[in-house]
Amino acid sequence: MQALLPQPPEAVKKRRRATKKPYSRSIVGASLEVIQKKRAEKPEVRDAAREAALREIKERIKKTKDEKKAKKAEVTKSQKAQTKGAVQKGSKGPKLGGGGGKR
Protein backbone atom coordinates (compact mmCIF):
# COMPACT_ATOMS: atom_id res chain seq x y z
CA MET A 1 0.00 0.00 0.00
CA GLN A 2 1.02 3.50 -0.68
CA ALA A 3 1.56 5.89 2.12
CA LEU A 4 -1.02 8.66 2.21
CA LEU A 5 0.60 11.94 1.35
CA PRO A 6 -0.82 15.12 2.82
CA GLN A 7 -2.57 17.12 0.08
CA PRO A 8 -2.14 20.89 -0.07
CA PRO A 9 -5.31 22.82 0.84
CA GLU A 10 -7.26 24.21 -2.11
CA ALA A 11 -6.64 27.84 -2.75
CA VAL A 12 -9.72 29.87 -1.87
CA LYS A 13 -10.43 32.47 -4.50
CA LYS A 14 -10.52 35.97 -3.10
CA ARG A 15 -13.85 37.68 -3.57
CA ARG A 16 -13.67 40.85 -5.57
CA ARG A 17 -16.20 43.56 -4.94
CA ALA A 18 -17.56 45.14 -8.10
CA THR A 19 -16.51 48.75 -8.39
CA LYS A 20 -19.42 51.15 -8.19
CA LYS A 21 -19.26 54.17 -10.40
CA PRO A 22 -19.84 57.36 -8.43
CA TYR A 23 -22.03 58.91 -11.13
CA SER A 24 -25.09 57.89 -13.09
CA ARG A 25 -25.39 58.65 -16.78
CA SER A 26 -28.42 59.29 -18.91
CA ILE A 27 -29.52 56.67 -21.40
CA VAL A 28 -30.30 57.43 -25.02
CA GLY A 29 -33.91 58.59 -25.24
CA ALA A 30 -34.22 59.57 -21.57
CA SER A 31 -32.46 62.35 -19.71
CA LEU A 32 -30.92 61.87 -16.28
CA GLU A 33 -33.67 63.92 -14.57
CA VAL A 34 -36.40 61.73 -16.06
CA ILE A 35 -34.63 58.55 -14.94
CA GLN A 36 -34.13 59.87 -11.40
CA LYS A 37 -37.77 61.02 -11.21
CA LYS A 38 -39.01 57.57 -12.25
CA ARG A 39 -36.68 55.89 -9.77
CA ALA A 40 -38.02 58.06 -6.95
CA GLU A 41 -41.66 57.17 -7.73
CA LYS A 42 -43.52 54.81 -5.45
CA PRO A 43 -44.30 51.36 -6.88
CA GLU A 44 -48.06 52.00 -6.72
CA VAL A 45 -47.74 55.13 -8.83
CA ARG A 46 -45.51 53.33 -11.31
CA ASP A 47 -47.99 50.42 -11.57
CA ALA A 48 -50.91 52.80 -12.10
CA ALA A 49 -49.06 54.61 -14.90
CA ARG A 50 -48.19 51.28 -16.53
CA GLU A 51 -51.81 50.10 -16.36
CA ALA A 52 -53.04 53.35 -17.91
CA ALA A 53 -50.51 53.09 -20.75
CA LEU A 54 -51.47 49.45 -21.45
CA ARG A 55 -55.18 50.32 -21.43
CA GLU A 56 -54.58 53.17 -23.89
CA ILE A 57 -52.63 50.87 -26.23
CA LYS A 58 -55.36 48.20 -26.10
CA GLU A 59 -58.03 50.79 -26.89
CA ARG A 60 -56.03 52.04 -29.87
CA ILE A 61 -55.64 48.48 -31.20
CA LYS A 62 -59.36 47.79 -30.74
CA LYS A 63 -60.22 51.01 -32.55
CA THR A 64 -58.09 50.11 -35.58
CA LYS A 65 -59.60 46.60 -35.65
CA ASP A 66 -63.13 48.04 -35.60
CA GLU A 67 -62.25 50.42 -38.43
CA LYS A 68 -60.86 47.53 -40.49
CA LYS A 69 -64.00 45.46 -39.85
CA ALA A 70 -66.26 48.34 -40.91
CA LYS A 71 -64.21 48.89 -44.07
CA LYS A 72 -64.31 45.18 -44.91
CA ALA A 73 -68.08 45.03 -44.37
CA GLU A 74 -68.52 48.06 -46.62
CA VAL A 75 -66.43 46.47 -49.38
CA THR A 76 -68.33 43.16 -49.22
CA LYS A 77 -71.65 45.05 -49.25
CA SER A 78 -70.68 46.96 -52.39
CA GLN A 79 -69.48 43.76 -54.07
CA LYS A 80 -72.78 42.00 -53.32
CA ALA A 81 -74.71 44.94 -54.79
CA GLN A 82 -72.63 44.75 -57.98
CA THR A 83 -73.21 41.01 -58.45
CA LYS A 84 -76.97 41.39 -57.92
CA GLY A 85 -77.20 44.15 -60.53
CA ALA A 86 -75.38 42.22 -63.25
CA VAL A 87 -77.53 39.70 -65.09
CA GLN A 88 -75.79 36.41 -65.66
CA LYS A 89 -75.50 35.34 -69.28
CA GLY A 90 -76.74 31.92 -70.36
CA SER A 91 -74.26 29.18 -71.12
CA LYS A 92 -72.95 29.05 -74.69
CA GLY A 93 -73.82 25.42 -75.32
CA PRO A 94 -71.68 22.34 -75.79
CA LYS A 95 -68.29 22.72 -77.41
CA LEU A 96 -67.85 20.53 -80.42
CA GLY A 97 -64.65 19.26 -81.96
CA GLY A 98 -62.61 16.17 -81.56
CA GLY A 99 -60.28 17.52 -78.94
CA GLY A 100 -57.54 18.38 -81.44
CA GLY A 101 -55.10 15.65 -80.45
CA LYS A 102 -52.20 14.25 -82.49
CA ARG A 103 -52.97 12.34 -85.70
From TrEMBL:
Cite the Gene3D superfamilies for this sequence.
6.10.250.1270
Query: Does the entry feature the keyword Magnesium, yes or no?
Result: no
For bias type Basic and acidic residues, the affected ranges are 63-77
For this UniProt record, the keywords arranged alphabetically read as follows: Ribonucleoprotein, Ribosomal protein
Q: Please provide one cellular component term from the Gene Ontology annotations of this protein.
A: ribosome
List the residue ranges of the region (Disordered).
1-24, 63-103
Ranges annotated as biased composition (Basic residues): 13-23
GO MF terms here are:
structural constituent of ribosome
Q: What is this protein called?
A: 60S ribosomal protein L24-2
